[in-house]
From TrEMBL:
This is Integrase/recombinase. Keywords: DNA recombination. GO terms for biological process: DNA integration; DNA recombination. Residues 5-48 form the Tyr recombinase domain. The lineage of its organism: Bacteria, Bacillati, Bacillota, Bacilli, Lactobacillales. SUPFAM superfamilies: DNA breaking-rejoining enzymes. It comes from the Bacteria. GO terms for molecular function: DNA binding.
Length: 75
């Protein structure tokens, strides 16, 4: 099977993401990738987006806990 949608760059980013998930060692990963900052490495492996999505999934304004207020999903 010959796939054209997966290249070396995809594999590199995937390695970085999983390496970080297992070790949480962003400094070493930064050196492996030869990046100039941890922020660049986090953005490169999609860590910032991953964190944002996880935090937003559990986010609530707490309005639904106020008496007499009901929030509907209808738009």
């Amino acid at each position: 099977m010959h796939r054209t949608d997966i290249g070396t760059h995809t594999l590199r980013k995937t390695f970085g993401y999983h390496y970080y998930q297992q070790t949480h060692d962003i400094g070493t990963l930064m050196m492996i990738f030869n990046h100039s900052s941890e922020a660049i490495t986090k953005r490169y492996i999609g860590l910032n987006q991953d964190v944002i999505l996880k935090q937003m999934a559990g986010f609530s304004l707490g309005i639904d806990m106020l008496p007499g207020i009901k929030i509907s999903d209808k738009r």
